[in-house]
Design a protein that fits this description.
about 130 residues; about 0% strand; globular; mainly alpha
């Protein structure tokens, strides 16, 4: 089994865990670990497109979870981690470096992420967006 496949399974497991069990303290404690998500988002620079897509979808999922939280503390939780670890910078850098005029799945996923941010910005007060 290749390293990229192992990372892919790890990202799928994390995405599933965050999506289903985000209210449990152990998940939030794991996310708070300095550099945890930052190291995962660095996979967006991988040569494997499927890893790039999974990382972008994970970040989008975190943003959507923050916006859908019923409490102000819940809204701040993932947004503060995204800001602290600067998770959008590697995604934007990769998007700008690989930008072409053609429409492909990676660019479409990045545009979907930023469309999600724009939609959420209209519904939720996010001071740094």
């Amino acid at each position: 089994m290749e390293t990229a496949e192992i990372w892919s399974y790890a990202l799928q497991l994390l995405s599933l865990t965050v999506g289903l069990y985000n209210r449990f303290p152990i998940i939030k404690m794991t996310m708070k670990q300095p550099g945890f998500l930052e190291n995962l988002v660095s996979l967006v620079r991988s040569r494997h497109t499927f890893l790039r897509l999974q990382v972008i979808k994970l970040v989008k999922q975190l943003i959507e979870l923050s916006a859908s939280s019923p409490t102000p503390a819940g809204k701040k939780f993932y947004f503060s981690i995204i800001e602290r670890d600067n998770l959008l910078a590697p995604i934007l850098e990769t998007y700008m470096a690989d930008y072409t005029d053609r429409d492909n799945i990676a660019e479409s996923t990045v545009r979907s992420l930023f469309q999600c941010i724009v939609d959420i910005k209209d519904r939720v007060r996010i001071p740094y967006y």
